[in-house]
Amino acid sequence: MKKNILSYIAQVIGRSSESSTVKTAYKKFKEPENTAVFTTKFITADKHAITLVKHNSDDNTWEFFSDDKFDDYEAVAKVVSLKEIIALDSSVLEIADLAAGYCAHRKLRNESWEIALIK
Prior knowledge:
Strand order of the largest sheet: 3-2-5-6
Order of helices and strands: HEHEEHEHEE
Mean pLDDT: 84
Number of domains: 1
Structural class: alpha+beta
Number of helices: 4
Number of strands: 6
């Protein structure tokens, strides 16, 4: 019985790992989890999806945004820990190795990230 269960699990795992819908394995940020990052109240308070991530090359900071529009960044800006961002949306771990000077964008939370150079 135990062998059959293990065989079934191996088959399921084998199938899912070949699926084209499987996302990349989660990675780990180089920065400690207590690193301060920039975001907005739309993500922290309103729990909107993170759709844009910037890893700035000038100061190596990280920024996490939703698609919400705003005129006054200071009115909506929040500084939180990297750990808080990961807790809100662990899919950001997929781009934890994003090089400084690049950004990642997606339209919806469950979509794949598109990587581009920050202009």
